[in-house]
Amino acid sequence: xxxxxxxxxxPLALPNRMNASDDTVxxxxxxxKTRMANRHTIRDxxxxxxxxxxxxxxxxxxxxxxxGANHQPWHFVAISNSDMKAEIRAAAEEExxxxxxxxxxxxxxxxxxxxxTDADKPHLTTAPWLIVVFAQxxxxxxxxxxxxxxxxxxxxxxxxxxxxxxxxxxxLYCLTHTxxxxxxxxxxxxxxAYEKPLMVIAVGHAADTCTIPQAxxxxxxxxxxCTRFS
Length: 230
Prior knowledge:
Blueprint: H1 22-37, H2 52-63, E1 74-79, H3 82-103, H4 106-112, H5 123-126, E2 129-136, E3 138-140, E4 146-148, H6 152-169, E5 173-177, H7 184-188, E6 195-204, H8 222-225
Antiparallel strand pairs: 1-2, 2-6, 3-4, 5-6
Helix pairs in contact: 2-6
């Protein structure tokens, strides 16, 4: 762990050991599959408030994800401040207008058409919380020295998946948003240059008028996403 000096390998007995029966494993796997199959990405949020302790638990869940060398190369910025959300929305929509107004290749726009997205991003101000995910290109140790992080995109991707699953488990909805370029997030969130913004996750409750694109319900069949050798 590069961010903690003076550590050496010390084995610990496995904590919280699970010794579930085969039947229990089968039931729990199926139950979680069903629960996650009911997860939907939405764009129509209410402004209903969510206590920070909920967001804190979501981020703590993400922070427990596995990472390269256990360096945990991520930082999450949780924003409920209306002025900051408005600033993020204005900057994101400016980038998006360039994207949809000719900056994006035709095949990309064709791929997005069934999803129904455009340059307007009202969720960035309506959702009660925005969580901006940053990936740390490198870290700074307790002694102030720079150290290398490993498997950064993979690690931050896993952590973000943990966060999204935790939000759904809590009964909330998310929308991942990746404006490009998104360097404005570094400035707005006052993060150091060695952290790269990867996405904005809007978190909240669904509006009564919320819809999802029909195309979003189309998932690849199992035999297209899995190859088995036994």
